[in-house]
């Protein structure tokens, strides 16, 4: 009888655990200080390493030239004047990195992105969205661009690791480049979240199995005692 009671109690605990299991959500937003970047392409030569430049800047006054920031995010750029009405950054590619943290196995989610001219998106070195090429009539015609929000899936499973997890954005700056002029801004904005949802179905299945086993054991014990 003691074994039956223990199995029943354990099964009940697992069933209740499945019922009250909750997800853990991590928010992701571009804001000054939340990402760092390395800039490329001095003098309009894409692909040339321009060195690590440090923390990026919040950009303001982006509408109506760009869409408004998404959610709790902010537009960020390589300088505080990289946005609309500011000074043209050098042509080339600017790489922004965002640290998600560690121990994220089982997480997954979505990310909404805006960029000028456009951007590629990587999760832990895996390309999720390719960068479009072009000459920048205003924003790049490919998505993500500065006017249309582009949703990117952040797949779970093997995409996240127990070690460091990083998002990387390589933002294209095409257009007219430097020379002291304006009208060729560059910037990045993103917002989203990742969630680790426990597997209550597994706990529920195991718990009900234990309760079933306890019931079978009780029936067997009663049958043996009646003989």
What order do the helices and strands follow? HEEEEEEEEEEEEH
CATH level 4 superfamily of the largest domain: Galactose-binding domain-like
Task: Walk across the major sheet and give the strand order.
Answer: 3-2-6-11-8-9
Characterize the overall form.
elongated
Mean pLDDT: 76
Q: Segments where pLDDT lies below 50 for 5+ residues?
A: 6-21, 42-49, 201-207
Your description of this structure?
20% of the residues lie in helices and 34% in strands. The protein is of the alpha+beta class and 227 residues long. The strands form three sheets. Strands 3-2-6-11-8-9 form a six-stranded antiparallel β-sheet, with no helix packed on it. Strands 1-12-7-10 form a four-stranded antiparallel β-sheet, with no helix packed on it. A two-stranded antiparallel ribbon has the order 4-5. The chain is elongated, with a radius of gyration of 26 Å. The model is unreliable at 6-21, 42-49 and 201-207 (pLDDT under 50).
């Amino acid at each position: 009888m003691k074994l039956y009671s223990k199995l029943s109690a354990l099964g009940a605990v697992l069933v209740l655990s499945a019922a009250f299991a909750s997800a853990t959500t991590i928010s992701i937003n571009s804001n000054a200080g939340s990402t760092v970047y390395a800039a490329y392409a001095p003098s309009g030569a894409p692909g040339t390493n321009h060195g690590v430049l440090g923390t990026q800047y919040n950009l303001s006054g982006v509408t109506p030239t760009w869409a408004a920031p998404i959610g709790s995010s902010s537009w960020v750029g390589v300088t505080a004047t990289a946005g609309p009405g500011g000074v043209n950054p050098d042509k080339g590619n600017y790489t922004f990195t965002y640290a998600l943290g560690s121990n994220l196995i089982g997480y997954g989610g979505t990310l909404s992105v805006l960029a000028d001219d456009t951007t590629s998106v990587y999760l832990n070195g895996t390309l999720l969205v390719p960068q479009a090429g072009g000459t920048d009539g205003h924003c790049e015609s490919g998505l993500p661009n500065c006017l249309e929000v582009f949703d990117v899936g952040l797949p779970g499973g093997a995409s996240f690791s127990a070690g460091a997890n990083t998002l990387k954005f390589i933002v294209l700056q095409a257009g007219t480049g430097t020379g002291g002029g304006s009208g060729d801004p560059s910037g990045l904005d993103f917002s989203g979240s990742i969630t680790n949802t426990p597997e209550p179905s597994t706990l529920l299945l195991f718990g009900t199995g234990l309760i079933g086993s306890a019931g079978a054991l009780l029936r067997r014990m009663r049958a043996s005692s009646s003989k």
